[in-house]
Amino acid sequence: MPFLGSALSMTKGDAFWRDTAAQYGPVFRARVMGETRIFVTTTPVINYVYKNSSNFDFFFFRKFITATVFGMSMDNSFHPAVDSQLFPGPHRAMQPGAIAGSITRYADLLEVMLPARLEGLRPDEGVDLANFAFDLIYTASSKAFFSSSFPSAATKEPFVAFDQAFPLLNLGKLPSFAKKPAEKARETMLSLVEEWWDSVTSEERETLAPALMAMVEVAEAEAWPKRDVAALLLGDLWALEANAPNGAIWAIAEILRHPHILPTLRSEIDNAISRLDPPHLSTLLHLPQSQLVLTLPELNACFQETLRLYTDSFSLRVVQKDCVVCVSRPNAVSPESEWGVDAPNWDHTRFLDGRAKGVMNPFGGGVSMCEGRHFASAEILTFIASFITLADVTVTSDTLMPDAQRVGLGMLQPTGTFKVRIASRSRG
Ligand code: HEM
């Protein structure tokens, strides 16, 4: 089909990249959903693109997406303040030294919510692990960033519907009648966010994550309409929730699929806690991200391996009128890559015994590299650490697999279910 081009083949799994690169070389032009793109699938060329930000422009796409996907007016998406303030301000506010407050708020919520949720489960209650974890992480992280007044429960399902609509909204050339349901999903979210923002008190504003405040202050200084403020906030909510919860879900599912790792992880966590002052799980959860990674190397290896196997990231760049797409996945998962013949398997020990020599770009790279990666790392590690410390899990059925249709947006989404029974863990 001329409009779809290679889109369908691209959503059938990793073979597309391997077969096309074998036939045409690692850089090829393909037609996808009415657009012609140049796909770059090999590490040296991807690095070249990432390093040459003046020839390979990213910010056009970020502004365009702010309008077409998140619903900000096109004029304000391309306003001069966007380049000079709106992008750099939040970027600075998400650096490792600046996210301690957000990590603290997230950990405060997690350590109350997780035990309460575990206590509320009946002993033989079947639970879908993905729903269980998504609900907790979505609630704790959205309230940590957007203040305790954020309507996490009321926005959770509309957010999931909006997230499903993202790929359609992102298709510039799709006829408008085909976009209608996606636009409706966005409208629902924008209204909810705008209504909440209208009700936020000045005390609550003080507790917003600095990255959000940096954006809101630019919008208010330029007197942008409320709907544009809501679109900016929706953009950040999407960045916060579309990837990290699924990262935690994949990591826990893989740990449970390899149950021999659990005792090692639990003793790593228990030993780490015993060295802390005071020696409590809470102290561990509140550590800065850089310390957390060093304190829990085995758990971090599980996270890194999950990023390698379960992300599919596209970095978009404009070169004159062409669009170049850096495709991270083939380098991280194909058996012919530096990761070796077992690249398709989840094996966290490759990050512990020096075998992890390949390149992976789960967070993209260059000027568009994910600014939430430090927070995401703390968010996911603390969730897994508290979950496996506080919960005993029996897997009853597992049909969880990546949704290959969701290419290029970071963490692959799970389809299928991962049914478990969860009990509060009695700690000796
Ligand atoms: C495991 C979790 C995450 C993954 C895999 C991930 C992945 C990505 C990827 C692939 C990009 C695009 C990179 C590119 O175009 O080169 C991105 C951009 C971005 N991410 Fe993340 N992300 C995660 C978590 C987060 C979190 C928790 C936040 C916010 C708190 C966040 C905020 C952002 C923002 C604001 C951008 C846009 C940066 C820009 O366009 O300059 N991300 N992320």
Structure description:
The chain has 428 residues and is α+β, with helices and mostly antiparallel strands. The protein has one domain (7-72, 98-150, 238-424): Cytochrome p450 (Orthogonal Bundle), CATH 1.10.630.10. 56% of the residues lie in helices and 12% in strands. It has 21 helices and 10 strands. The chain has helices spanning 7-10, 15-24, 43-51, 59-68, 74-77, 80-86, 88-93, 100-119, 129-146, 152-169, 176-199, 202-206, 210-221, 226-241, 244-257, 261-274, 281-285, 289-295, 297-310, 329-333, 373-390; strands at 27-32, 35-40, 126-128, 311-319, 322-327, 391-398, 401-402, 409-411, 414-415, 418-424. The strands form 3 sheets. Strands 1-2-5-4-8 form a 5-stranded mixed sheet. The chain has a 3-stranded antiparallel sheet with strand order 3-10-6. Helix 6 packs antiparallel against helix 13 (210-221) and helix 11 crosses helix 14. It is globular and about 60 Å long. 39% of the residues are buried. The model has no long low-confidence stretch (mean pLDDT 93). Protoporphyrin IX containing FE is lined by residues 62, 239-240, 243-244, 247, 311, 313, 315, 362-365, 368-372, 375-376, 410-411. Protoporphyrin IX containing FE (HEM) binds next to helix 14, helix 15, strand 4, helix 21 and strand 8. This is Cholesterol 7-alpha-monooxygenase. One of its GO terms (molecular function) is iron ion binding. Heme binds at residue 370. Keywords: Heme, Iron, Metal-binding. Its cofactor is heme.
